[in-house]
Amino acid sequence: MSPSPTPVREPAWSLSRSAIGLWVTEGIMSSIGIGIAATLFAVFVPNDVGGPFPLLRWLVPIAALLWAIATIGVRPWIRFRVHRWEVTPDAVYTLTGWLTRTWTLVPIARIQTVDVSRGVLQQLFGLASVAVLTASSQGTVRVPNLELDVAQRMAEALAHRAEAVRDEAT
Question: Do residues 51 and 77 make contact, with C-beta atoms less than 8 angstroms apart?
């Protein structure tokens, strides 16, 4: 009986610390929307309505408050600790997820395109995301929320490496 293979080591790099601020901002925005909806529910549901509504008048705002605590105070820090990435001479790989851990590895030889994108909030925080695409829809690696200069250097280096590998194969 052969021993089980050792898992791929954890990628070396974490995302930019500015990603925490981005995620906190996203949490604040979603919490405001949910808070407004919870407030409207509590205000406009009459006191004399029967059924579960009297209880829900209190549970919905409490749930909105718990959502805000989780998305603003807890989730950004956990995401920062668990999302990792690395580019090696042979591959690009990421480790994502906090409940379900997902390893994604793309060999340099499989890279077809490298995209850098910046959403509106990412621009405010000086961040960018890199998508390394292959011919397979399952093989895309996304590295979100890197500092802009890191993302640009990574994309340029990967594009040159992939081109060099293709040139060697022909």
Answer: no
In tens, the pLDDT along 118-127 reads 999 999 999 9
Write out pLDDT tens, residues 75-92. Answer: 999 999 999 999 998 889
Q: Is pLDDT at 4 greater than 50 in this prediction? A: no
Q: Which of 88, 81, 98, 92 is nearest to 142 (CA)?
A: 92
* Measured distance CA(112)–CA(162) in Å, rounded: 8
User: For residues 132 and 25, what is the distance between their CA atoms, to the nearest angstrom?
Assistant: 26
How open is the CA angle 20-21-27, to the nearest 5 degrees?
A: 90
Q: Write the CA distances from 22 to 26, 27, 38, 40, 75, integer angstroms.
A: 6, 9, 24, 27, 12
Rounded CA gap, 145 and 150, in Å?
Answer: 10
- Alpha helices by DSSP H, 11-105: 18-44, 53-68, 75-82
pLDDT above 60 for 58: yes
Amino acid code (one letter) for 62: I
